[in-house]
Amino acid sequence: MPLRPPSVVQRLMKSCGGATVIEYSVLVALISIAAAAALNTTGQSIQNVLNAASNALF
Q1: DSSP secondary structure, the chain, as one string
Q2: Could you give the CA distance from residue 4 to residue 25 in angstroms, rounded to a whole number?
Q3: Contacts of 13 (CB under 8 A, 6+ apart)
Q4: pTM, two decimal places
């Protein structure tokens, strides 16, 4: 069975101390929450525009 290169997470955990891995995990979580909030707001805006266009047609 051929060896495959280590994943990014495995390399990060080997090269960083425990505290650094936790800090990166918190950072990733915060970025994910911000991205979800931005997508939610953008989705609502797009829905409003499409609803207005639909109402104008009918």
Answers
A1: ----PPPHHHHHHHHS-HHHHHHHHHHHHHHHHHHHHHHHHHHHHHHHHHHHHHHHH-
A2: 24
A3: 21
A4: 0.51
Tokens of 21: 């891995």
Residue spans of the domains in the chain: they are 17-57
Helix axes 18-57, 8-15, angle to 10 degrees: 140
Measured distance CA(39)–CA(8) in Å, rounded = 26
pLDDT in tens, 8-27: 767 766 665 667 888 888 99
When comparing pLDDT for 49 and 8, which is higher? 49
Contact status, residue 13 vs residue 21, Cβ threshold 8 Å: yes
Query: Is the CB of residue 12 less than 8 Å from the CB of residue 24?
Result: yes
